[in-house]
Write a structure and sequence with these properties.
Chain lengths: 663, 137, 203
Amino acid sequence: MNHSFIYFGGLLGKLSLKQLPHDPLTIIGAVMLIMVPITAAIVLTLTKRWKWLYREWLTTQDHKKIGMMYIIVAILMGLRGLADVVMIRTQQAVASGHAHGILSASHFQQIVSAHGTIMIFFVAMGLMFGLINLIVPLQIGSRDVAFPFLNATGFWLFFAGMALVNVSLLIGDFSATGWLAYPPLSELKYSPTVGVDYWIWSLEIAGIGSLLAGINFIVTILKNRVRGMKLMLMPLFSWSVLGSMFLVAFAFPILTVTLTLLALDRSFGMHFFTAGGGGNMMMYVNLIWAWGHPEVYILVLPAFGVYSEIVATFSRKRLFGYSSMVYAIWAIVILSFIVWLHHFFTMGAAPDVNAFFGIMTMIIAVPTGVKLFNWLFTMYRGKLNLKTPMLWFIAFVVVFTIGGMAGVLMAVPPLDFQFHNSLFLVAHFHMMIVSGVLFGYFAAITYWFPKFFNFKLNERFGRYAFWSWLIGFLLAFVPLYILGFMGATRRLDHYSASLGWQPLFIVAGIGVVFIIAGVLFQFAQLAVSIWQRNTNRSGSDPWGGRTLEWSLPSPPPIYNFARLPLVSTRDAFYAAKRAKVVSTQPYEAIEIPRNTPLGLIIASGAFLFGFAFVWHIWWLVIVGLVISIVAIIYRSLDPHPTITISASEVERIERSYKTEVAA
Amino acid sequence: MNPKYHLSSASSQEADMLHSPQAQHLTSLKHYVIGFIGSLILTLSAYFLSVNYVGNHNLLLIGLAILAFAQFILQLFYFLHVGHEFPPRLKLMLTCFMILVVTILVGGSLWIMFSLNNRVMPSTQQMVKYMNSQNSL
Amino acid sequence: MTDMTLTKSKRQTEQLEQTNTAVLGFWLYLMTDCVLFASLFATFVVLRHNTFGGPSGAQLFSLPYVLLETLVLLSSSFTNGLALLSAQRKQVRPTLIWLGVTFMLGATFLGLELSEFHKFVAMGDSWRRSGFLSAYYTLVGTHGAHISVGLIWMVVMALYIYKHGLGRLSLKRLRMLSLFWHFLDVVWIFIFTIVYLFGALHA
């Protein structure tokens, strides 16, 4: 690669028509992908809703709408991740001996990498930020987040990162180096196509979005709590979000640096992680896991918070051991920064280093155990109401405990030398993340859905979905533990028939069929619930809730709280219901942020920047950068970012809810 | 007494304190001057120490590290005004958390990487040294 | 207390609270930036001996030159503080003058840094030369990039104050800008010590 190519290149950099997909499977995927926005555009045009889309969604600063957009994106990306799963499982079920399956080796690796990347960054993170946006301000009695504009910008950066991953399906290819792209394999010399660059820039942009969201929610929780709600009176979901957002704020910069250094290696010929030139590829592994381990807890802590709310509500009891729950969260936050080496015990550090991190890893199981026992003690002698959110919780307890024990096994360095990079590990982390994160967010969606739509999700279909998911999940992952013991490594696109692995891989494949059934039931549940919404009206407090969000009408008005609630205990709404407090204070005028497209524009600039960097189109890099910078400066000069809703208007809105309830 | 009224009057006191320019000005100017002169002294002593010092390298390293850390704390207090806020001291709390994370991150990374380097990846210098020793045999 | 003054003081309190919230958020951003720099420092220290036959720090760096850079940046940090003080006293002209001085010093610093880079690259010691040099350019360059952002911000800030005077918004933003600038000086302490002073030791 010579200088002139780097700096002046053609007007389109490395981009050419050759980069369009040409194998049938990718073409099918690409066509399906293009169909999504095209269908959306047609529907919008036919129903004349472009203006509505722009006004109500694209420019919104309302945290509730932003939360919904996060969740919609996450669900769509979840479908793509699921399509990847189907291909992976099919390939592994059939590609044994002389059969080579449906995918080429490199295509298989791309799909595995895309699956991991998408599921963690765009599904789990998306669901998490969606829920946080929807719930946290309501729980802490706030009319808004601390920085609405930052929040919206964070979402659109997340969206830009997501778009970039999907563009890789249309133009060029995606990284084939696993979800964390270890060098030297991910260096230019061994991965000369643009796949790794797509991976880098989509995560970089989405990661900055996450960082902004993290900063916003830390400050929101610290500063915007309603008067009287001291930290130790705050609902546990908000506590766990605070812990998780601390991890976001202090771990994501490490990811930003790591990705940038890899990009500098690939695009500017630097030598951070190269196999020659004085690079040190082990530093990459060290850095990426210094972010990667906290990331696991970033995802799981809010789900823990969800479970804390659900268990208390559906056991009709206050949560057992509130303070120990809070301390456990902070123990996890600190400890999760001190365990990252357990992801690379086998890299060759001295025994003292391995032993230290092994012991720390075992210690972090202790606060997690404390939380589990607290939930169980909450259920003990409670009046259990076994609705679907509770079923997800009980499944979580079982699966998470099994997966967790496998984790403690792997925390022992000598044992890890056996399990490292095997399917045992894959089974372990799926058990943790699917049960800890996905089940938690499913439960959360079922639990909080009525708050935002004023009808409950259908219980019967919820149960069908739950059982399909659980059975499918166990069928898919228990065989992987066994295969791991038998020596199967992760990311295998083909194996010898003599190993006798095929039956177990087929069982795992059948598991996926059940999971797909579960997903279909979930969509059916949604459809049926919408269909029957008028017979299913939930009112503002369908579950006998304990926290402030249930005190609001469903769906909550744009300003959330017409009158700010008075809080002096935990479970503030429960206490208010018992005391039968009715506020008669007059309504006041409320300031809300004015809609603005600037967040979207900043993110568009970032998208152009990322795309241009992938293809080395340097003029477009500058254009993207300038768009973002100018938008930021323009925003900073805007002196009137809010509008005021008058007291009488507030009163009118509040009245309309009351007449609705009466009718 | 109405609690709301009480709160707003407490905060307007705070507001008065911040908005009274004289008080703010005197304390802060003193702060900036102390910060500036202190940093100047620490920077220059670090510089002249490392230029003129002959002897044990490790001792010098520790000395320079202490000087840098002292200047860090000095600027934190006198330029960035950490700790000069009303309770709850959130800024201070965030700063402490940052120092904890950075200590773990940098300390842990160096511990791990030096251990790895010693065991599996000699540096260029070490390699050259080793090759020279082989040649001299 | 009449009703009017009550609302007015409530409004003031709210605005003060908003300013404090914004400054706290900005402070949190600076803390995350510290973690970003910490990762770069760790990388630099790990790679500092990986010269791959290229020059080491001791062969490249001229300490008096770096001392000059340091003093320029430190002075700019001080004058930046003076700008904020004048602004708090609502004196527009002194504020603009001190901001101007800070800008000049910051630009001088950036110029010194760039000309150092240019000198090294002209000698053939670019970031492609070795792991050590990659880490050096990236760490110092990231600081320089922050400085550039600070300079752009200063220009925008000065124009804003020139046009709108020293209202609540100007003061809030000036407070953040000054935090940002002081923070960059704090980071430089460690670059000065770890990259240059330590680097010059390992001859």
